[in-house]
Specification:
- The protein is α+β, with helices and mostly antiparallel strands.
- The protein has two domains: 102 residues; 137 residues, Neuraminidase (6 Propeller).
- Helices cover 43% and strands 25% of the residues.
- It is built from six helices and 13 strands.
- The strands form three sheets. The chain has a five-stranded antiparallel beta sheet, with no helix packed on it.
- It is rod-shaped, with a radius of gyration of 32 Å.
Length: 256
């Protein structure tokens, strides 16, 4: 009988030692996720100050991880002098410079000596050669719905509409009927280096750091499995809290 009673405390002592060890290892495993949650939570609380919503990821491996690539057609128009206007998923690019979005599909884009004109069926948007917005013309400022855009012999803009062909004055403030333009804008395939430049600009403005940090915080950056990992981490933290409290009670009882 004495041996049995002597073995029992030793048995429970080993069990408690094992529990303490498991508590320690589980705590170390959960610590990494706690650090991620803490850092990303702090950053999300100061999104405005850090400018996370306006800064975009440009790293290839991050963009590849998210699978960011054009979904719609890749439309490009030559502007001369190795300049190209591209529309990628309705987002406009002058070479590697983002210009904004177009709510309509384009009918063409041309360049004069001073301006780049981007035409949609119901509007023309004018930019400087460097890509700065100048003006948008629509409604009564146009001679009608646009079917095509080109450059006339005088270097001004020409539009093809259901009502006929119209030419602009040098300041693009008035339109007069006239003969056909020498050449209407048409889509062409750009050189590979231009295509890569445009794709780089497209990918670089498609993923904000705010989204990346939010996905890190929630675990969605790893897909569905990431959500399960974060759920498991939350359960582990609850388990650590419960076992830690239980161990504290046991130690208090031992001291008494």
């Amino acid at each position: 009988m004495t041996r049995k009673h002597g073995k029992r405390p030793q048995f429970w002592r080993k069990k408690w030692r094992s529990l303490y060890l498991w508590h320690r290892y589980i705590g170390l495993a959960a610590a990494a996720f706690v650090v991620i949650l803490s850092i990303t939570g702090l950053m999300l609380n100061h999104t405005g100050r850090l400018g996370l919503s306006s800064q975009h990821a440009s790293s290839d491996w991050i963009l590849d991880w998210y699978g960011i690539a054009p979904e719609g057609p890749f439309v490009t128009y030559p502007l001369g002098r190795d300049r190209w206007l591209a529309s990628v998923d309705n987002r406009l690019f002058l070479g590697g410079k983002p210009l904004g979005e177009s709510p309509e599909s384009l009918v063409g884009a041309v360049a004069t000596d001073d301006l780049v004109a981007v035409a949609a069926p119901s509007a023309i948007t004018l930019y400087t050669i460097e890509g700065e917005l100048v003006e948008q013309l629509n409604g009564a400022a146009l001679p009608g719905r646009i079917n095509a855009i080109g450059v006339n012999a005088d270097g001004g803009l020409a539009l093809k509409t259901p009502k006929g062909i119209f030419h602009s004055d040098p300041f693009v403030t008035a339109w007069t009927p006239g003969p056909s333009a020498p050449k209407w804008a048409g889509q062409e395939t750009p050189p590979d280096h231009i295509r890569q430049e445009i794709l780089g600009a497209y990918r670089g403005t498609g993923l904000s750091w705010e989204r990346i940090i939010l996905d890190l915080h929630s675990g969605r950056i790893m897909g569905d499995w990431g959500l399960y990992v974060m759920d498991a981490s939350a359960l582990i933290l609850l388990l650590l809290s419960a076992t830690g409290f239980y161990n504290w009670i046991k130690s208090k009882r031992r001291k008494r």
